[in-house]
Amino acid sequence: MTTTQTQTAAELRVEDVSVVFSGLRALDGVSFTVRPGTIHAVIGPNGAGKTTLLNALSGIYRVASGRIMVDGQEVTGLRPDRVARRGVARTFQNIVVSPVESTLDNLMVGRHRLTRSGIAATALGLGRGEQRVHEARVRDIAEFAGLSGVLDRPAASLAYGDLKRLEFARALCLEPRLLILDEPVAGMNAAESAELARLVSAARDALGLTVVFVEHDMGVVMSIADRITVLDFGKVVTDGTPEHVRQHPEVISAYLGAPMESGNDQVAERLS
Ligand SMILES: Nc1ncnc2c1ncn2[C@@H]1O[C@H](COP(=O)(O)OP(=O)(O)OP(=O)(O)O)[C@@H](O)[C@H]1O
Ligand SMILES: [Mg+2]
C-alpha cells in the first residue's frame, strides 16, 4: 500500500468466557491472550464453538460470564458498533456483501466508522474533500487486495475468490487494530488460499494489526499463525505455537487419528 495509516496493534485478552444457548454451553470458560501484532488462529472441529467465540468477541453474542479485554479495556457486553469503534473489524463465515453495489461502494461502506458522522455520512454523501481522501485510501487497499480490476463491477458478478478478498479488504477499510476473520480461505482453491494467507500476513506487517482467525485449512494455519488456540466442545484443548499444537496428543487424535509426522500438505489433505 502506498499510503500507510499505521495503527497501534491491539492486545486481546479473553478471560474465562462462557456463552450459553438454552442450556448448551457453546463456550465454556475459554481463556487466551493474543499479543499485539501477532496472528492467532483458532482451530477445532465443526461445532467446537469457533464462530461463537468470534461472535462473542465482536459483540454479536452476549457472554454468560467472563471478560473480553482489548488493550486492557473491557468490551464485554458492548454492542457490535461500539466494539467496532474500539478498532475491531471482522469478516463472516458466509459472505456478507451488498450484491447490487459495486466493489468500490462495498468497500466505502467499510469506511463508515471513520467518517465524521458515521454511516449516515456514507448514506447521505460525504463532503467532496472527505470523500476523495477516503476513496483514495479505499482504492489503495483494493489494489493491495488485488481488486483494482473489479472496482466498478457489482459484487454479485465477482468470482468467489474475489468476493472473499472483497470481504477481507472491506474489513481492512475500517483501519482496524484487531482484525477478526472467520474462515477466510474456505472454498478457495489452493492457489487462492495461499494468496490470501500471504495478504493476511502482509496486512499485519504493513498496517500494524493483530489478527485472530478461524480456519480449517491447516496448511494456511501452520504457515501464518504465530500461536494457535484449539477448541473442542467449547473448551480450550491446548494453546501455543504451531510446533506445540502439532505435537499435542489430543490435537493429533481429534484431527488425524494418528501421529502427525508429515508436513503441512498431508495434514491439510487429511483434514479436507
Ligand atoms: N445462535 C445460536 N443458537 C443456538 N445454538 C447455537 C447458536 N450459534 C451456535 N450455536 C451452537 O453452538 C455450538 C458451536 O457452534 P459454532 O457455530 O460456534 O461452531 P464452529 O466451531 O464455528 O463450527 P464450524 O466449524 O462448523 O463453523 C454448536 O452446537 C451450534 O449449534
Ligand atoms: Mg464456524
TrEMBL record:
GO terms under cellular component: plasma membrane
Domain of life: Bacteria
Molecular function via GO: ATP binding; ATP hydrolysis activity
Pfam name, any one: BCA_ABC_TP_C
Matches recorded under PROSITE patterns: ABC_TRANSPORTER_1, ABC_TRANSPORTER_2
Keywords in alphabetical order: ATP-binding, Nucleotide-binding, Transport
SMART domains the record matches: AAA
CDD domains: ABC_Mj1267_LivG_branched
Gene3D superfamilies: P-loop containing nucleotide triphosphate hydrolases
ABC transporter domain ranges (all copies): 12-258
Matching InterPro entries: AAA+_ATPase, ABC_AA/LPS_Transport, ABC_transporter-like_ATP-bd, ABC_transporter-like_CS, BCA_ABC_TP_C, P-loop_NTPase
Regions crossing the membrane: none
Name by which UniProt lists this protein: ABC transporter ATP-binding protein
Organism: Streptomyces sporangiiformans
